[in-house]
Amino acid sequence: MVAIKIVRGIKKYREAAMIEVDVLQQLVKHDKNASRCVQIRNWFDYRNHICIVFEKLGPSLYDFLRKNSYRSFPIDLVRELARQMLECIAFMHELRLIHTDLKPENILLVSPEYIEIPEYKDSSRTRKDASQFKRLPKSSAIKVIDFGSSTYGTKDYSYIVSTRHYRAPEVILGLGWSYPCDIWSIGCILVELCSGEALFQTHENLEHLAMMERVLGPLPHHMLKRADRHAEKYIRRGQRLNWPEGAASRESMNAVQKLPRLQNLVMQHVDHSAGDLIDLLQGLLKYDPANRLDAQEALRHPFFTRIHCRRS
């Protein structure tokens, strides 16, 4: 059994598909120890559609969360998933490749098998389908997919990348982006796996930046000052974010206001190793890409290296 990705026979999609085939072949060529990137088996052109043949995998992390009523993953599973994502991105970055579209939909469990465990501690769930059982994957093995937007890190790029919720501040402010934009996306994904919900649920740039400030503190002045002409309107006299003055609506202000600080958000959901996770996330979600952890540094963080004990 294999999985086949069929790309519509439209010029720009075909071109993107051929870039993806090239990237996938590069990954296979250099991948001596299964780096967690999906493996291409073959590709062919069928009636002008590019068809890419892959190994068959399980559901995406997003689909698993959705079918699990958006219940969060246990912290020890989050640690394993985080380690594998960072190993994949470290491998890509060594090859000078930037993924640019990391999100739970693009991270697949290798196996579709899961177990159901009783869920005791939260009997007040309000979701209609709230059962007393929580699903857990039988295996924590994952593969990263969808290299159609990947690019070689030969310079700082300025065009918009990443799916909105996982988009780094330098991309929104038009400051140019490179490898660190992948690291920001991983930080956002880890918070989502711990909480069950996307960290920045927004579709608008100013609100998105205001949410970042609410969760992570003020954006640095030097980044606001350098914002490109498209992003200038989000900034007040080059000094601070134009918020709440520039808010589109009362609902938008409320959406920002209700967000907790990063530390509080993690503490609400994580029962042990919360301190190490918060410290790791603060390194992955540094505003200035120059100060953000790289993938290899992140893998050496105590969140992965320290022996963690559960509280009894």
UniProtKB/TrEMBL annotation:
Residue stretches making up the Protein kinase domain: 1-304
Matches recorded under InterPro entries: CLK_kinases, Kinase-like_dom_sf, Prot_kinase_dom, Ser/Thr_kinase_AS
GO CC terms, sorted: nucleus
Catalytic activity: L-seryl-[protein] + ATP = O-phospho-L-seryl-[protein] + ADP + H(+); L-tyrosyl-[protein] + ATP = O-phospho-L-tyrosyl-[protein] + ADP + H(+); L-threonyl-[protein] + ATP = O-phospho-L-threonyl-[protein] + ADP + H(+)
GO terms assigned for molecular function: ATP binding; protein serine/threonine kinase activity; protein serine/threonine/tyrosine kinase activity
The keyword Nucleotide-binding is assigned to this record: yes
Record keywords, A-Z: ATP-binding, Kinase, Nucleotide-binding, Serine/threonine-protein kinase, Transferase
Claim: Kinase is one of the keywords in the record: yes
EC number: 2.7.12.1
PANTHER family: SERINE/THREONINE-PROTEIN KINASE DOA-RELATED, SERINE_THREONINE-PROTEIN KINASE AFC2
Similarity-based family: Belongs to the protein kinase superfamily. CMGC Ser/Thr protein kinase family. Lammer subfamily.
Protein name as it appears in the record: dual-specificity kinase
